[in-house]
Design brief:
The complex is a heterotrimer of chains A (368), B (187) and C (255). Chain B has 187 residues and is an alpha/beta fold. Chain B is built from six helices and seven strands; from the N terminus they run βαβββαββααααβ. Chain C has an eight-stranded mixed sheet, sandwiched between helices. In chain C, strands 5-6 form a two-stranded antiparallel ribbon. Chain C is globular. Chain C is built from ten helices and ten strands. Chains A and C meet through helix 4, helix 5 and strand 9 of A and strand 1, strand 2, helix 3 and helix 5 of C. Strand 9 of chain A pairs parallel with strand 2 of chain C, so a sheet runs across the interface.
Chain lengths: 368, 187, 255
């Protein structure tokens, strides 16, 4: 039965994982995402659905457990927060290289180093520019509400299995720790072993039958084979860009200025849009829901309409580089964001928009 | 209707659970709600606060700078959040332990002796419900029956026998909240 | 063609679970025999459909080229974590890791200890040749005192490099570990014994007994810079002295 609940983002994600019929979760505690494994352990998913939940000895072990389960066609996931994701990067690169479907959740906190446990979006580069070694990308979903924390689990697995590729849910401490009402979906059955063998028998290592043996590896010692592999991966990413880009436009139709923001920043910036419009400034918000693929064309199109773009991120300026690349210098692009776990207020963002974009735009006009 | 509230005090005063009950009450009357806490070690014995929003429409930012109502339960929070109340907004506080009382004249200020009333009722744990009662008297944004439903949802069943006590505490708060008059400054 | 090559004259053939791919191991290396006896056990038990192997990083990274079974290749040292997840999500399967000393006893120590401590229902086959073979003869955690390697060119100095790690004895002390034995494969006699131990290990999986851990002390003639015969003699004299062969833990009880 679907169910309406008041839940933390982290808890909603965990509950949604059980309901989505996920086979296994492997994790290691770290603030601010420990509620995920705490919730799962409390809920006894092994009794509810037969889902395996295991607290690993480290983030490294956890991601490699995900790799193991994924190599056999099981739906496996892990979650962590920034320093823990850094530890998982080797495993994530292997997942990409071995073309394994898996879901990784990052409830981001501020860094670098041990950093702070407060919310941040400073892992944008790590998430969309590879992070681990080698030519690979992650499909990255950025939830902006507790509802999306729940919904994106199943969405992420759908993409992961569509492409046989790891998918990252990039959340942060704000979305993970806040409570909102969430509509939880009906319980889905986990796939039976027989169904897995039938459906993924052409690649998964489930035991060799009368077919050729299946091998899961990311090792290609011959350069030509390695290059062919990389080309295959790039083709996948191109297909993701063509078929599975997601974004949301808010008040963009008549906008003179544009804010680009994802996740928690998009929520806060939405209030900025309201405040700006109360003052008579027509501001729109483009929220990338997927950070890779990135809404490049949409930004380019909007750059013909707006006079300036502010990239709002809880970091020192990361996504702004992709925004600049997308709009090809057609309009001024500036960054605004707080760091260190400080969350920018809607008012601060509006001030930044007025200071960095609107004022400069007027100055430019005066020069002419 | 949108109501943006900050509840701030010490960890252990029931700040977060009060916010949660309020949020659940909003759900009971089909509203959108958000509950955004301060989290982490600062909560252990230090200050704790939570931003609660109830709205008939989709909620944009769950994190705010200014609020319709501030419910303030210790001096640190008074120092931090008195200025965060929107002009014309409401500040409710428990004077227990407050040395610097609020001074703003462009907002409505109410006082409720939550600490005292809770100990008079013989249970310090219902402190936050007394405060909630005070707030609901001043701003009846949720119906009492929905608060009771919200309580049922947020308390595990083994504590449901405590619901009548909580209801009494809310009623007590409703009856005992009083407007606070700012004394003229002595020059 | 020689007349003698007729099927009725055949007295030995490799198990059909070894592929025809030429082994990438150096002539004289023990890996080929260790592979072969492992595959023989799986064939003889008739469990190929239910067996999933986990390959390491190191010389045996390409084990999946030679073993004709389903295999997942793990990141360096993480094979026990990979095997943990497979065994947990497919409890009726036989899951084994095949790892070298660098993989199992250095970079993967945490994964080894914790998979063993949780008593995962898996088989760990640990090939210990006291050196990093794949990367060209660097010092391993099991390199003996005074032994020369490219990163201990003047011999392993205990003072600065620590003692050779007896990880097998270490894991034998963990309650989750049911069976631990140390064997070798340099003679037919030794290989037969090693095979028996591997068979016992897989039987333990069938009985859901937890971790079965079989160490195979092997040579690395290339890394040790000896010819194969010399390397085996050196192994018997030096490696076996520090890593004595035999059962270490049987049926959950230390010997």
């Amino acid at each position: 039965m679907s169910e309406l609940k008041l839940m933390k983002g982290n808890e909603a994600l965990a509950e949604a994982a059980i309901r989505a019929g996920v086979d296994a979760y492997f994790g290691y505690p770290i603030t601010p995402q420990s509620e995920v494994i705490e919730y799962l352990m409390t809920e006894r998913p092994e009794k509810r659905t037969g889902m395996i939940v295991l607290q690993a000895e480290s983030e490294i072990a956890a991601i490699n457990m995900v790799y193991g389960a994924a190599s056999t066609g099981k739906r496996a996931m892990t979650s962590s927060s920034s320093p823990g994701i850094s530890l998982k990067l080797e495993g994530i690169s292997y997942l990409a290289g071995a073309e394994l479907p898996a879901v990784i959740v990052n409830v981001v906190r501020g860094g670098p180093g041990l950093g702070t446990i407060q919310p941040s979006q400073a892992d944008y580069f790590q998430s969309v520019k590879g992070g681990g070694h080698g030519d690979y990308k992650l499909y990255v979903l950025a939830p902006a509400s507790v509802q999306e924390m729940a919904d994106f689990v199943e969405d992420a697995f759908d993409i992961a299995f569509k492409y046989r590729a790891p998918v990252l849910i990039l959340s942060d401490g704000l979305i993970g720790q806040m409570m909102e009402k969430v509509m939880l979906k009906d319980q889905k059955e986990r796939m039976t072993n027989e169904a897995i063998i039938k459906k993924y028998g052409d690649w998964a290592t489930t035991g060799k039958t009368d077919r050729e043996r299946n091998i899961i590896t990311s090792l290609y010692l011959q350069p030509e084979k390695m290059e062919a592999k990389v080309r295959k991966l790039m083709k996948k990413y191109e297909q993701m860009e063509n078929e599975d880009l997601r974004f949301e436009k808010i008040n963009c139709e008549d906008a003179d200025y544009l804010i680009v923001a994802y996740g928690s920043s998009a929520r806060i910036a939405q209030k900025t849009v309201e405040l700006a419009r109360e003052k008579g400034i027509k501001v729109g918000l483009l929220r990338p829901i997927t950070l890779f693929p990135f809404p490049k064309q949409q930004l380019l199109d909007l750059s013909n309409q707006v006079k300036g773009i502010l990239s709002v991120e809880l970091n020192a300026g990361q996504m702004v580089e992709d925004v600049k690349l997308a709009v090809e210098h057609k309009v001024p692009v500036e960054h605004f964001g707080r760091t260190g776990g400080i969350i920018h207020t809607p008012e601060e963002i509006l001030e930044a928009l007025e200071e960095k974009i609107i004022k400069n735009e007027h100055a430019r006009h005066h020069k002419i | 209707m949108t109501e943006e509230i900050i509840i701030a005090g010490f960890g252990g005063q029931g700040v977060l659970s009060m916010g949660k009950i309020l949020a659940y009450s909003g759900i009971m009357q089909d509203q959108e709600v958000s509950w955004m806490p301060s989290y982490g070690p600062e909560m252990r014995g230090g200050t704790a606060n939570v931003t609660v929003i109830l709205s008939d429409d989709r909620i944009s930012s769950p994190y705010l700078k200014v609020f319709d109502t501030a419910i303030i339960l210790n001096q640190q929070s008074m120092d931090k959040f008195e200025e965060s109340v929107k002009p014309g907004g409401i500040l409710i506080y428990d004077p227990n332990g407050i040395s610097h009382h609020p001074t703003r004249t462009d907002i409505k200020i109410f006082k409720i002796e939550g600490t005292k009333l809770a100990s008079e009722m013989g249970n310090k744990k219902i402190f936050n419900m007394v405060i909630l009662g005070g707030f609901l008297k001043v701003k009846p944004i949720v119906k009492l029956e929905n608060v009771i439903e919200g309580l049922k949802k947020s308390l595990s069943e083994r504590y449901h026998h405590l619901i009548p006590l909580n209801k009494d505490a809310i009623t007590m708060g409703m009856n005992r909240v009083t407007p606070y008059k700012i004394e003229a400054k002595a020059y | 063609m020689l007349d003698i090559i007729k099927s009725e004259n055949q007295v030995f053939c490799k198990t059909k679970l070894m592929t025809d791919t030429p082994l990438s191991y150096c002539p004289g290396c023990g890996h080929g025999t260790a592979h072969n006896i492992t595959m023989e056990v799986i064939e003889e038990m008739g469990i190929v459909e239910d067996t999933i192997g986990v390959a390491p990083v190191g010389c045996s990274v390409l084990a999946y080229d030679f073993m004709d079974i389903d295999m997942t290749q793990a990141a360096h040292g993480r094979a026990p974590a990979v095997a943990t997840a497979i065994a947990r999500t497919w409890p009726e399967k036989y899951v084994f890791t095949y790892q070298g000393d660098g993989d199992l006893a250095a970079i993967g120590t945490a994964e080894t200890i914790h998979a063993c401590n949780r008593g995962e229902n898996i088989v760990i086959i640990f090939v210990n040749n006291g050196i990093y073979g794949m990367t060209g003869g660097q010092m391993a955690p099991t390199t003996l005192e005074g032994m020369h390697s490219s990163t201990s060119p003047y011999g392993r100095d205990i003072e600065t490099m620590g003692s050779p790690l007896k990880i097998t004895e270490l894991v034998a002390n963990l309650p989750g570990v049911y069976y631990v034995a140390r064997h070798a494969v340099h003679t037919h006699k030794h290989a037969r014994k090693a095979k028996k131990a591997i068979r016992k290990a897989f039987e333990n999986t069938r009985l859901n007994k937890g971790v079965s851990f079989v160490e195979i002390v092997s040579n690395c003639n290339s890394g040790w810079k000896m010819n194969p015969i010399e390397s085996n003699e050196w192994m018997v004299e030096n490696m076996f002295a520090y890593f004595p062969l035999g059962d270490i833990k049987v049926n959950g009880k230390l010997k």
